[in-house]
Amino acid sequence: MSTTRTRHTLSSLSSLSSLSAVLAAGVLVLGACSSDDTAASDSPSGTVTVTAGPPDSTVAPGPGGEGDGGESDDCSGLTGADAVARWAGDVPPNSGGYPWAPESAETDGYDPCADLSWIILPIEGGTASSPYQIMLFHNGSYLGTATSDDYGFYPDISRVDDATVSVTWHWPKDGESNVGRSGESTAQFTWDESTQSVQMNGEVPPV
């Protein structure tokens, strides 16, 4: 009887020892999993959100820019053709309702850096007495037309200084033909820096 109890006790102890080993292993496994979860949560995710600051307002000068002794920051950097392509569509319709002809615009007076410059805009299929309009620009950017009305015959325009241009319109007096026209009207247009606008001094053709 004593030998049987001893064997039973040893068997129970062996079972308890095996169970303890299993539980200990389970604790180790759980500990390892817990450690892995913590490491994963500390590592960066696949998507990173970056908050951008305000864009840099400094623009490196391009070809002909101030950085290499060319145009200053006040210049538009546009050619006369560029200016026509960008703003000819903003010119109001002429009195005759004819379509303007941007492709035939006279751009010799355009200066992307001048306080005041100009482009002469004709109509499509025009004749000597057809209407023209004068587009004005400050530092190469469009300001508007020199006058609200358009006038017939090609105007003579010359530069007085960087901020002033002089315009002479031609028109026939009573009894004169278009070929023999002798009427003239002259006005000067000046960019006024203090008011940021163009001031006109002179007269326009009679209408």
TrEMBL record:
Residues 35-78 are annotated as: Disordered. Keywords: Cell membrane, Lipoprotein, Membrane, Palmitate, Signal. Residues 1-24 form the signal peptide. PROSITE patterns: PROKAR_LIPOPROTEIN. InterPro entries: LppP/LprE. Residues 35-45 have a biased composition (Low complexity). It comes from the Bacteria. Pfam families: Lipoprotein_21. This is LppP/LprE lipoprotein. The lineage of its organism: Bacteria, Bacillati, Actinomycetota, Actinomycetes, Mycobacteriales.
